[in-house]
């Protein structure tokens, strides 16, 4: 009986061991399958990552290429914009030149001839309170605001300044020169231009005087009005046409011509005279004469 019980115990022990071993086997198998699945998943993930990395590299290369292309386009766009700006400026300049009388900055006194049919594009009647003898005087319409500003500023500063002469037609200059020749003979050539050579025909030249001097303005340079003009006329675009020592006419401190603020300012700053400049250099200021 004891032997039987012993064998039964042994068999039960062996069965228990087998069961435990089987359960351990199943657990290990399950773990191995999970590990295998994880390894397969990891392998798949590594492949996907490799593809993503490769695709990323391709995208980065493509992005770099696009950036270079965009940089080139931006550079070209900048170049194009600059070209358009230059072209626009050129067109604007040409447009302004087509609307500006090319005669306005020509050196006429004994240099170039202004034909008898020339007439300024538009003349405007000057205010009588600006004229010494209250007769009708006309001035170039586009240059008139500069002249009026000059006269207004002079009056505001207490400077007695009036006009004795402005625009003269070809015929008027011819008649005036004929009168001078009768009185002064060939000596008239020293102070009076022949018709077609007078700046007055442009409509942008004036002769100044004072209430005291009137038409006897030869001593105009002894007045405070002349001194004021030498210091301020350039601010309004006016220059003294025939300074002391010029080779065209006698010294005429009363005779001033509108040439535009920029050119007048340059001549004043550099202490130069209009008729001493090369005509080609002068022509560069035509587009800015009414700026």
The multimeric state of the shown protein is single chain
Tally of individual domains? 2
Give, in spatial order, the strands making up the sheet with the most strands.
Answer: 3-4-6-5
The shape, in one word, is rod-shaped
Walkthrough of the structure:
By secondary structure, the protein is an alpha+beta fold. It has 2 domains: 1-99; 102-288, Muramoyl-pentapeptide Carboxypeptidase, domain 2 (2-Layer Sandwich). It has 6 helices and 6 strands; from the N terminus they run αββαβαβαββαα. The chain has helices at 2-98, 144-156, 170-184, 224-232, 261-269, 279-283, and strands at 123-125, 138-140, 162-165, 205-209, 238-240, 255-258. The strands form 2 sheets. It has a 4-stranded antiparallel β-sheet with strand order 3-4-6-5. Mean pLDDT is 79; it is low at 87-91 and 175-194.
What structural keywords apply?
6 strands, 291 residues, 4-stranded antiparallel beta sheet, Muramoyl-pentapeptide Carboxypeptidase, domain 2, alpha+beta, 2 domains, 51% helix, two-stranded antiparallel sheet, 6 helices
């Amino acid at each position: 009986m004891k032997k039987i019980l012993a064998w039964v115990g042994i068999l039960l022990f062996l069965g228990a061991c087998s069961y435990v071993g089987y359960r351990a086997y199943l657990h290990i198998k399950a773990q191995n399958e999970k590990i295998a699945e994880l390894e397969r998943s990891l392998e798949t993930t590594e492949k996907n990552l490799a593809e993503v990395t490769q695709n990323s590299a391709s995208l980065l290369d493509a992005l770099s290429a696009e950036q270079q292309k965009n940089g080139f386009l931006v550079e070209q766009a900048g170049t194009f914009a600059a070209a358009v700006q230059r072209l626009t400026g050129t067109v604007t300049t040409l447009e302004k030149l087509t609307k500006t009388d090319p005669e306005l900055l020509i050196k006429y006194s004994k240099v170039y001839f202004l034909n008898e049919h020339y007439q300024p594009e538009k003349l405007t009647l000057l205010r009588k309170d600006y004229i010494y003898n209250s007769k009708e005087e006309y001035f170039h319409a586009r240059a008139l605001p500069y002249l009026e500003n000059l006269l207004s500023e002079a009056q505001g500063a207490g400077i007695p300044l009036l006009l004795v002469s402005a625009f003269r037609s070809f015929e008027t200059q011819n008649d005036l020169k004929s009168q001078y020749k009768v009185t002064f003979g060939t000596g008239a050539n020293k102070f009076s231009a022949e018709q077609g050579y007078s700046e007055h025909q442009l409509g942008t030249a004036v002769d100044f005087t004072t209430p005291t001097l009137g038409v006897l303005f030869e001593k105009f340079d002894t007045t405070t009005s002349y001194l004021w003009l030498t210091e301020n006329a350039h601010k309004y675009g006016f220059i003294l046409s025939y300074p002391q020592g010029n080779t065209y006419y006698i010294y005429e401190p009363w005779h001033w011509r509108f040439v535009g603020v920029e050119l007048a300012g340059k001549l004043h700053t550099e202490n130069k005279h209009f008729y001493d400049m090369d005509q080609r250099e002068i022509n560069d200021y035509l587009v800015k004469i009414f700026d």
